[in-house]
Design a protein that fits this description.
Length: 62
């Protein structure tokens, strides 16, 4: 079972990649930096969801 944090984190990570690319294409360094931050936040949230899901699998609590 996929944890909701995995889905939300993946979406935020993808949005960050888009924002970074758009910022780079338009020369907007602030947008590019925000995109990079969003990617890190998204990856962290996604990994949290994976760990949370793994713990649930190990303990048998769903």
């Amino acid at each position: 079972m996929v944890d909701k944090n995995e889905i939300k984190g993946g979406a935020k990570e993808m949005g960050g990649k888009i924002k970074e690319t758009a910022g780079r294409a338009t020369g907007n360094r602030d947008m590019e930096a925000e995109g990079k931050v969003d990617q890190v936040e998204g990856k962290t949230q996604k990994n949290y969801g994976k760990v949370k899901d793994a713990v649930k699998d190990q303990t048998g609590t769903h």
